Amino acid sequence: MTTYNRTLGKPSANCKFICERSRKRRRSAARTRSYFCLLKTAFQAAAVTQMYVRSPLVAAAAIGCALAALPPLGFSGFALTTFVMALINLSASKVTTPNVIIGPALAYGGLAQLLAGMWDMASGNTVGATIMTSYGCFWISYAIMLIPSFGVAASYPTIAELNHAIGFFIIGFFIFSIAITFCSLKSNTPTLALCVFVNITFLTSSIAHFVTEDTGKPHVILTKVSGGFGLVASLIAWYIMYTELANKSNSYVVPPELLLPWGQGKSEMVGGLGMESKARDLRESTVEY
After folding, report:
1. Is the residue at 284 inside a domain?
2. pLDDT tens digits for 136-163?
3. Where are the beta strands (DSSP E) in the chain?
4. How does residue 13 score in pLDDT terms, banded at 50, 70 and 90?
5. Pair (146, 255) in one structural domain
6. Which of 94, 188, 237, 260 gives the lowest tally of CB atoms within 10 Å of its CB?
7. Residue 251 counted as domain residue
């Protein structure tokens, strides 16, 4: 077969066809190799992502950052909002209208706790994320009920029916708090005490909304009882916040860790996973992927 034109000194048509077909084969082979490389890279990225999802601390160590402990922020937001609401329930300085709680419930007790819960979720703290997020949503929901533009109160024909509906809402969170109490039985004394006082606060408050006065308002005595237990709960939450923040490097007053006789120390809800220290240990170690 002749593939070269001797007269003109140029490649023949047959030669051009063979060369073009060879180039197409090379391009096809190169594309195939590229596809395989992309698939390999995708599988590797998926494997690394799965590893990071299973262990967020490894991801934090890889990028060289420490995961801050967010429970103190959540507890401080819960403490302040509960403190103000408890004083209103106790009719302190003859204040009985709860509208002042809207601001703290939306911002500090609501949004701050919600953000703390989301950060706990990113840190792998399932218990803390569930608790902080749930109580943050509780305060946001409660504030929405008090805002007239949402029309929650106006949709009920009587004040008594409105308070009964609020009682349903509170008793639901009482059931949630009971479950959280069982998850704190191996934590420490302040944590378990906080859960118990929060349970009693929710229970007495819900009963006060069910057993209304003749005017339809919540039962006065039960409301004050709820305020008393809520006041103690807020002080315990502040104490837990302080124990999480204070250490020998920033304070001369470091509270002791009050363990339960049958407990194992800190629980996940108060940063018991030690996210920051674990991330630091991982960064100091040599990890290759």
Report:
1. no
2. 999 999 999 999 999 999 999 999 999 9
3. 4-5, 10-11
4. low
5. yes
6. 94
7. yes
- Round to whole Å and give the CA distance between 58 and 187: 26
Q: Are 156 and 200 within one domain? A: yes
**Residues 40 and 99 both lie in one domain:** no
pTM above 0.85, yes or no: no
Q: Phi first, then psi: what are they for 119, rounded to 5°? A: -70, -35
17 to 7, 23, 25, 49: CA distances (angstroms)? 19, 10, 12, 48
- Asked if 199 and 254 sit in the same domain, the reply is yes
Q: Region 189-213: what's the mean pLDDT?
A: 97
Token representation of residue 55: 């262990």
- What integer best gives the mean pLDDT of the chain? 81
C-alpha separations of 126 from 5, 235, 269 in Å = 79, 25, 8
The vertex-170 CA angle with 179 and 185, nearest 5°, equals 20
The reply to whether 249 falls in a domain is: yes
Query: Containing domain of residue 261, as a range?
Result: 70-274
The total number of structural domains that make up the chain: 2
**How far, in Å, CA of 123 to CA of 131, rounded?**
14
Distance CA 46, CA 41 (A): 9
Dihedral angle of Cα 269, 270, 272, 273, to the nearest 10 degrees? 70
Tell me if 23 is assigned to some domain: yes
Cα separation, 80 vs 60, whole angstroms: 31
Query: For residue 81, what are its two tokens?
Result: 């909002």
Q: Tokens 């109580």 — which residue?
A: 135
Instruction: Decide: 216 and 234 in contact? Cβ < 8 Å.
Output: no
Do 181 and 47 belong to one domain?
Answer: no
Are 134 and 82 members of one domain?
Answer: yes
